[in-house]
Amino acid sequence: MESATPKSSESAARVTHLDDQHRPTMVDVGDKGVSTRTAIAEAIVRFPSGVLESLEKSSDRERRSAKGPVFQTAIVAGIQAAKKTHEWIPLCHVIPLEHCSIHIEEQEQDRLWIECRVRATHKTGVEMEALTGASAAALTIYDMCKALSHEIVIEQVRLREKTGGKRDFHDPR
């Protein structure tokens, strides 16, 4: 994913979704080589104090709200969203994902950590699919728990890693 504003350590990046007349366009990947592409994205959902603990917890560590199993529903929603990223993000390519997984863990301070991992063998990357999957899982958790509090916050959604294509990316955080 290229940045429209170059950092001092980067060469000037070109916005690839604009044609030579500055109109939006889908990037032509016809001449690119096929390679295995992976991406990992994460999201953090923060609950007001005590709200996460107020959800019923089953023997398999699943949290339940009045709407049903929170984690399992969020996992299915995240995978489904990752597979349909091209329907959410207008200039994304249709990418046949070979793998998509969502992992959710409870963390200290009333937080949930969501990780989405995706893989495809294709001509373009899968960063947006991973970010969309993590986002949809976070939004689903919010939806399933909002009756308990509207102060639930999706704190961040970020790309942690991508491989394949021109260059790999690994967030050092």
Task: Characterize the structure shown.
- The protein is an alpha+beta fold and 173 residues long.
- The chain has one domain: 2-Layer Sandwich (Alpha-Beta Plaits).
- It is 24% helix and 31% strand.
- It has 4 helices and 8 strands.
- It has helices at residues 51-54, 70-83, 85-88, 127-145, and strands at residues 35-46, 56-57, 63-65, 68-69, 99-107, 111-122, 153-163, 169-170.
- A 5-stranded antiparallel β-sheet has the order 5-6-1-7-8, with helices on one face.
- A hairpin with a 2-residue loop joins strand 3 and strand 4 (68-69).
- Helix 2 packs antiparallel against helix 4.
- Residues 1-12 have low confidence and may be disordered.
Number of strands: 8
**Helix segment tally:** 4
Supply Rg: 18 Å
Gap between N and C termini: 18 Å
CATH topology: Alpha-Beta Plaits
What's the overall average pLDDT, rounded? 89
CATH superfamily: Molybdopterin cofactor biosynthesis C (MoaC) domain
The residue ranges in which pLDDT falls below 50 over 5 or more consecutive positions are: 1-12
Query: Per DSSP, what share of the residues sits in E-state strands of 2 or more residues?
Result: 25-35%
Assign an overall shape.
elongated
Helical fraction: 10-25%
Order of helices and strands: EHEEEHHEEHEE
CATH architecture term: 2-Layer Sandwich
